[in-house]
Amino acid sequence: MTIDVRRAALFAVLSGVVIIIAVFLRFSSLDARVMHHDEANQAVRFCALFTDGTYVYDPVEHHGPTLYYLSLPAAKLFARNVSSVTEAMLRAVPAFFGVLLVLLTFALAGFSRTAKVITAACAAVSPALVYYSRYFIQEMLLVCFTFGVIVSLWRFLRSPTAFMAAIAGMCFGLMCATKETWVLVTAALIPAVIVVLMMHRHDGMFRSVREYCRMQFIFAGILGVVIPVALFFTSFGTNPTGIFDVFRSVLPYISRSSGSGHAHPWYFYITTLIGNRIGHFYITDVVFMVSGLAGVVLAFAGKIGGREQNAFARFIAVYTLSLALIYSIIPYKTPWCLAGFFHGFILLAGMAAAAVYAGYTSRAARIVMTIAAGTMAFFFGVQSYAAGVLYGADSRNPYAYVHTLPDYLKCMARINQVADTNTFIAVLASATDTWPAPWYLRNYQRVGYWTDTNPDPQILQAPVILVAQEYQPAVHSRLEHTHVLEYYGLRENVFAALYIERGLYKKVIRP
Predict the structure, then answer these.
(1) What domain count does the chain have?
(2) Would you call 334 exposed, middle or buried from its count of C-beta atoms within 10 A (0-12, 13-18, 19+)?
(3) Of 390, 421, 444, which residue constitutes the final position of a domain?
(4) For labelling, which of 10, 32, 314, 462 has a CA lying 20 to 30 Å from the CA of 152?
(5) How far apart are the first and last CA of the chain?
């Protein structure tokens, strides 16, 4: 067996191991964590599409349509009705795109095999990327489609073809149809392209701007963008005017960027990535962030791989730093928003590590570095499993943001114990504290939701009443003699009060 064949075989084995790890960490026990209120909101909207086959994009709330439509195939295949749609079934969709994000690393042009394996491994075991790959929200789809834009755009810049322009356009269209923050991603990509073309304008690596702007490339790119945008925003032709909502959605989300209850200081994402200790585990991604910053320095020093890989590193460095700066400046911050720019740091960290590895040619040094890399991969894999599975809803988990407490499942179990599908269930709560109840109560036919702190007396006659903490003082005196009260945790320092009609309670729970 020649050296080239052995190296190819080793590359195939290592790549397979990385992919297996990525799949395991993202798909293991997807139903272990209680639904976050954002997940429940998305899930209920999906169930409406699943049941009625209708969907209309809302340019003010809930983000783009790709998550719902791309969740349909698995649900249609494995679920008979809404009742049989499970958390694992829904979360498998972002988990799939989390794995695809890792796989796309192997499609990078100009990368050495070592750089591809190391970079893919970093993405596979990153606690942040693993955690949000297990969340039924749009973020991991957005990151995956963005990376699709980057991979195809770079291939186009190196060797422009109409086909690659169409692929880049299609990924961009999918990005637009996923989440409104595509605008921020675009704002970061533009300077990255400009900087890398300017820095390499005399070395023959790239073509002229005129070459890139040939009509056949422009047409292919625009067509690639329009197809997914038109399909998803018009609900596959059933809502023709919906195509304009891709632009109508920009202003509402710009106005929301001031905070809307989620305002945090500029360093919020840094402290999130630094992480926190939970028992014997320390959930952190700070090593990848620091290594990524080292990758920025090496990229502009011309020390990362060959000429093409170094140019790509500079492109990613400008994009990553630009997007990180944009997100840090905007007051509105939720931890999953870091996934986009943090993936850039992951790429830079992988390239930096590969450059260091290539710098040592002695067999002993490379064996030591391989053992060290394997140890780190094992460490981060364990932390990712702890973050995603063991402590997915723990308030100490840096990536669990105002998460529903596991105790809430006991509340839902109690309701399931005392109620049948026709039992009248009243939920008294604000719009925020209502969730995730609608997801867990989706099988009941007579469920009502009220935000009035002084509800109609007929509502308080319901045999089962779920009351948010801030609403309880207003109704407790009217229920204490007719209902049995139980308390359950909703979120950290926030409880939910469950009132069960005394006769029903004695009949079912204490006969």
Answers:
(1) 2
(2) middle
(3) 390
(4) 10
(5) 77
